[in-house]
Write a structure and sequence with these properties.
The complex is a heterodimer of chains A (501) and B (619).
Chain A (H helix, E strand, L loop, with lengths): L1 H18 L6 H18 L8 H6 L9 E10 L4 E8 H20 L8 H20 L3 H10 L1 H11 L4 H34 L6 H4 L9 H15 L8 H8 L2 H26 L1 H6 L1 H20 L4 H20 L4 H32 L10 H4 L1 H14 L6 H16 L1 H26 L15 H19 L2 H17 L5
Antiparallel strand pairs in A: 1-2
Chain B lengths: L5 H18 L6 H28 L5 E7 L9 E6 L1 H24 L6 H20 L3 H19 L6 H32 L4 H11 L5 H17 L8 H4 L5 H10 L4 H8 L1 H6 L1 H23 L4 H21 L3 H28 L17 H15 L5 H14 L5 H27 L13 H25 L16 H24 L5 H9 L2 H7 L4 H19 L6 H20 L5 H22 L1
The chains are: A mainly alpha (501), B mainly alpha (619).
Chain lengths: 501, 619
């Protein structure tokens, strides 16, 4: 079933590519339908108990009951490479987020794209396929393949449909992720080799490799290989500088996918691979990692404040918000970890919505420069209300999902590391500064030069926005279903650290 | 439905009002908006009354109503649960009662303004958040209300959003209070780490078990909570946002920046007072913060020229009295003053609003004067309000402020100091109240007023005037048993001299100020006042003792400069340099690809020679 999810995305992409010859408006419908089909398939996940085959594939898993769906296909048996796909609560949650934001990305670019619509939608679906693979793959080789698969179509999205400096931004994005991906590949090979040296078995199986690094003198270096790849993706200071360019230059759908989902693969990688594969090294590295997290929170926020470009501001705010994820993961307690997961989901929604807003503004005004905006509230009140909502969500207003995430991260991190938590909490003040400045410069004040005659949100845009509003409200006042979903895997993870969960 | 079930409707009604107004903003006519908004608060007040009666009829000290479990992660299980006891009942009564009157008044005041529905939507949302704040059973839910009122305050200060200065004032209010809120959040983290829960009652019990008196943990937690309280309640050192917050419409100033939200800090400390009993140092810090603020703000109020800013500084000063009361353990005196202040300050703001409206939004007191005959209702109301503010005997403000001053006197060694400072400020309060009344209502008429209030505005004024006059008579009975008091015995015998001086000083202030203004009536009060207002000390006081300039120099400007300087992100530099180096190398090397055979042969020969030389040399 998981493999089918990926295949549907890849096939949908090919259909969209071909359909362009029939009608230029057909590809976006195909893309939307493909995602809906996938969502329908995904809705059945976890409803049936695991088969004996699946249980066999879980051999070595510390807590097999935490896994909801498992499937395995042979691939290169000689080196122990298989297509092992599995999701637990975390995987399922991110899968749902991926499909939801995928649909939103399609809707967000409904009228924006005017050239080569077929190839555009194909790249979008292929990116989604790659991301789904990343969230499911538990064979390190397969994981690496999907990791690369999601980058290439994303590169095209930025390079072909991006804004003024798209070539520069796309190349920067590609180089950062490629080089860090190379480090991860080296670390994967090193880990597999360590396991081979100890047991004489070649395997890329996640469960088999779980204890492989224990006691190895190379464990710290191998962990760094994974860690850097994921920190680049998250991104964390000092590996973040690809993100403002990529986000700003990408078309709206690309920004939505990047901020909403691709960044989450970094957080996912930390939780799924770095900590469980290298528990000892992770604990040793906890302080520097939390330091980078707190630094990202504050540094990203300060940089966001200084921007004139609407999208760039939101991009830097993402760095700030993802800092909370890093802080939470390395605090190693249930509160902070659950907070980090919640933060990933909530940030996915709120930032995707802000990028969609930025896209809508750029489409109407042909500028992202806030110094030319102002007074939009009177011109487009519906847009103003939505902007206010997501800005307020992103500064961590209680009652919305982002607050639950950030509060739990800080609450948990405070138990682990007081000084860094205090530093990160300063980010709450900085967030208020940049978020409200955004509101002021774009929506309040006297009308700017560019805004005359601008149209408000239409029905499609209002509906998309309302869905995200609803999502953040539900996460904010009743987040428990999410915590229940991820609780088993969180406890397993903390148990492997030997700490008290 | 049992009476206590009505408690759930208390916050629900304003929330529903908000949702309806938000969704219907552009479809509902103003009159419908007005009815919905006022009804929502009226229903809340009614439900609060029903729930309160049911609560008082029972004999339980507290009642709770669990709505749903918010979240439960690893022992952290805050619920959305309402908690009713004497303290929250008093607060709920003030919020819904005064809130209702202000809503009714505002339906008239805001008539014809653009954004009518937006205004009332946010007002309703504010009341909802404020009610959650005082009814919360858990500090996390309290924090939700706490941040919610901050957001509404931001939205309403910046209500006239076309004017950038209003936006600045709104952001200033939000960001400065957020600094306090962050301290408070850290306090919550600390309390949870040490005590394992944020549910208020069990948390307080656990604290008294876990911490001895004077424990550093308790002191730290109390100071962090105090950080939140000074932010929200505009006390030193986070007080600078309140005067600028007057950019909002006047009913907003009355509701949020006088009667309810700014007293949230007082409520927070009263609510967690068992913690402060464990931390005498922190509690004394509360008293000092209160004393310093009431003193500083009273002098600032003396020289303001903007009617609303006079009232803003006086609010700051009166909340300082409440903090002083909290600091000396006179918990119920603090809540008593909170209540009477809500009455008379709402009254003052609303009648000031009527004056301002009839003068076409003129707020400068130097351009007012002689209005008492022309605007009799606002005049009488403001007279009542000012008398209560000055604490003239038999008004509500007299009863509550008297209690605070006497409690301060009894506070051990520091008592006389606290009492003396607060009494001096009380004298100043009487003087600036008189000055305000004089400049606005007496002397020559300087601006012609237009129009009179409708019934929708006069009626709330009348009710508030009655409450401001009579609030002292029934008021203390309401709050007396809400909180156990430390140090003040009700009706205990005070030193007659001290009590007499305390009561006499405000009268002295009023009489003295009246004499001063009367004696200068011939030479023109306005010019005398104006001349003294331009002196350097007056400018210093009017600017709020230089705090704005200080913070701008120390915090705001360095932050903005640093952020601007680094807007292109220094961290990108090494990466950009790497790329640039690669590009230079690429150009250099590709420059050798000339396609000229002679050049290739030469370079090959040089290379071979070099290789040989190297090989020989290495031998």
């Amino acid at each position: 079933m998981l493999f089918l999810l990926i295949l549907v995305m890849l096939a949908g992409g090919i259909c969209a590519l071909l359909a362009e010859r029939v009608d230029a408006r057909l590809p976006r419908w195909i893309a939307l339908i493909t995602i809906v089909i996938d969502a329908g398939l995904a809705a059945t996940l976890g409803s049936t108990p695991l088969s004996p085959d699946a249980l066999a594939a879980l051999q070595g898993a510390p807590e097999p009951s935490a896994w909801l769906v498992v499937e395995q296909y042979a691939w290169v048996p000689r080196f122990g490479i298989s297509l092992l796909l599995a999701v637990d609560g975390l995987g399922l949650l991110l899968l749902v987020l991926t499909l939801l934001l995928g649909a939103i990305a399609v809707l967000a670019s409904w009228q924006e794209v005017t050239r080569r619509q077929g190839f555009f939608e194909a790249n979008l679906l292929w990116t989604l396929g790659g991301v789904i693979g990343v969230f499911c793959a538990l064979d390190l080789f397969a994981f690496f393949v999907f990791w690369e698969v999601m980058l290439v179509p994303m590169y095209f999205l930025i390079a072909i449909w991006g804004h003024e400096q798209r070539a520069y931004a796309a190349m920067k994005f590609f180089l950062f992720t490629q080089i860090s991906g190379l480090l991860m590949l080296l670390a994967v090979v090193g880990l597999v080799w360590t396991h081979y040296a100890a047991t004489g078995d070649w395997t890329f199986n996640y469960f088999a490799l779980l204890g492989a690094a224990a006691g190895s003198p190379w464990a710290g270096w191998l962990m760094l290989g994974f860690l850097i790849a994921f920190l680049v993706k998250l991104p964390s200071v000092p590996f973040h500088s690809w993100l403002p360019d990529a986000h700003t230059q990408a078309p709206t759908a690309g920004s939505v996918l990047l901020a909403g989902i691709l960044l989450k693969t970094g957080g996912y990688g930390l939780i799924r691979f770095v900590v469980p594969l290298f528990p000892d090294a992770s604990v040793e590295f906890a302080f520097p990692a939390m330091l980078l997290g707190a630094l990202s929170v504050v540094y990203g926020g300060v940089l966001a404040f200084a921007q004139d470009d609407f999208k760039r501001l939101v991009a830097y705010s993402s760095i700030s918000h993802m800092g909370f994820v890093l802080l939470g993961v390395f605090a190693f307690n249930e509160l902070a970890l659950q907070g980090a997961i919640m933060q990933m989901v909530a940030h996915g929604l709120s930032t995707a919505a802000l990028f969609m807003l930025a896209g809508a503004l750029q489409h109407r005004l042909h500028t992202r420069d806030m110094s030319r905006m102002g007074g939009l509230w009177n011109q487009a009140p519906r847009m103003g209300v939505f902007a206010l909502f997501f800005v307020v969500a992103s500064l961590g207003m209680p009652g919305l999902g982002n607050f639950v995430g950030e509060f739990l991260v800080l609450l948990g991190a405070f138990q682990a590391q007081v000084a860094l938590t205090v530093a990160a909490a300063l980010g709450l003040v900085v967030a208020a500064v940049y978020a409200l400045v955004l509101m002021q410069r774009a929506f309040y004040g006297p009308p700017g030069s560019a805004i005359l005659g601008m149209a408000d949100f239409d029905g499609r845009e209002t509906g998309t926005m309302a869905a995200m509003v609803l999502g953040l409200l539900v996460l904010g006042v009743h987040p428990q279903p999410v915590f229940d979903l991820t609780a088993p895997m969180v406890r397993v993870l903390l148990a492997t650290l030997g700490g008290t969960p | 439905m049992s009476g206590l079930q009505a408690l759930g409707l208390v916050p629900l009604a304003p929330l529903l009002g908000f949702v309806v107004l938000l969704l219907g903003a552009r479809h509902l006519p103003d009159r419908v908006v007005a009815v919905i908004a006022s009804t929502a608060i009226g229903v809340a007040a009614l439900c609060a009354f029903i729930a309160g009666r049911a609560f008082l009829a029972g004999d339980a000290a507290t009642a709770t109503l669990t709505l749903w479990s918010w979240l439960a992660v690893d022992g952290f299980a805050p619920a959305v649960r309402l908690h009713l006891d004497g303290l929250s009942l008093v607060m709920t009564g003030v919020i819904t009662g005064v809130g209702f009157l202000i809503h009714v008044y505002a339906t008239g005041y805001m008539r014809g303004e653009a954004g009518y529905a937006r205004f009332f939507a946010v007002m309703n949302l504010f009341v909802f958040a404020m009610l959650l704040l005082v009814l919360a059973d858990d500090l996390l839910l309290l924090y939700l209300g706490w941040e919610g009122v901050g957001l509404c305050s931001f939205l309403l200060i910046g209500f006239y959003h076309e004017e950038p200065a209003n936006g600045y004032a709104a952001r200033k209010a939000f960001v400065i209070t957020r600094i306090g809120d962050t301290a408070m959040a850290l306090g919550l983290f600390l309390l949870f780490r040490e005590l394992g829960t944020l549910r208020i009652a069990p948390m307080l019990d656990a604290a008294t078990l876990a911490w001895p008196e004077g424990s550093p943990m308790a002191t730290l937690a109390c100071l962090l909570l105090l950080g939140g309280a000074v932010g929200k309640s505009a006390q030193l050192p986070l007080q600078t946002w309140l005067p600028d917050a007057m950019a909002g419409p006047t009913p907003v100033s009355a509701l949020i920046h006088a009667a309810t939200m700014v007293t949230a800090g007082v409520y927070l400390i009263a609510r967690t007072h068992p913690l402060y009993l464990l931390a005498p140092d922190a509690q004394f810090a509360v008293a000092l913060v209160g004393l310093a603020t009431l003193f500083i703000a009273a002098f600032s109020a003396l020289v303001q020229t903007d009617l609303k800013r006079i009232l803003a500084y006086s609010t700051m000063s009166q909340i300082g009295y409440m903090f002083l009361a909290l600091g000396v353990g006179a918990w119920s005196a603090a809540i008593f003053h909170l209540m009477t202040h809500a009455f008379f300050k709402a009254l003052l703001f609303l009648s000031a609003g009527s004056v301002i409206l009839s003068l076409h939004h003129e707020q400068d007191v130097r351009r007012m004067g002689g209005l008492w005959r022309r605007l009799p209702i606002p005049f009488l109301c403001m007279l009542v309000g000012s008398a209560a503010l000055a604490a003239l005997p038999l008004t509500s403000g007299y009863f509550s402020k008297d209690l605070i001053l006497l409690a301060a006197w009894e506070q051990g060694d520091a008592g006389p100091l606290l009492w003396g400072g607060a009494l001096l400020a009380a004298l100043v309060t009487a003087i600036y109240s008189t000055r305000m009344m004089w400049l606005v209502f007496f002397g020559p008429l300087r601006t012609e007023p237009h129009g009179q209030d409708g019934l929708d505005m006069s009626l709330p004024l009348g009710v508030l005037a009655l409450a401001s006059l009579g609030g002292g008579w029934f008021g203390f009975a309401v709050v007396a048993d809400v909180l156990p008091d430390q140090g003040i015995g009700h009706g205990a015998d005070h030193d007659a001299l001290i009590a007499g001086v305390t009561a006499a000083v405000p009268i002295l202030g009023v009489v003295g100020a009246l004499w001063w203004y009367r004696s200068r009536a011939g030479v023109g009060v306005d010019s005398a006042d104006a001349a003294s207002a331009e002196s350097a000390p007056a400018r210093f006081l009017r600017g709020g003792w230089g705090f704005d300039a200080l913070y701008a120099t120390l915090l705001e400007r360095p932050f903005v400069l640093a952020a601007r300087a680094n807007r292109r992100d220094l961290v990108d530099l090494p990466f950009a340099l790497t790329a640039a180096t690669a590009r230079v190398l690429h150009r250099t090397l590709s420059a050798t690809q000339t396609g000229s055979l002679r050049w290739y042969a030469t370079s090959m020969a040089i290379g071979l020679l070099a290789a040989f030389a190297l090989a020989l040399g290495l031998r």
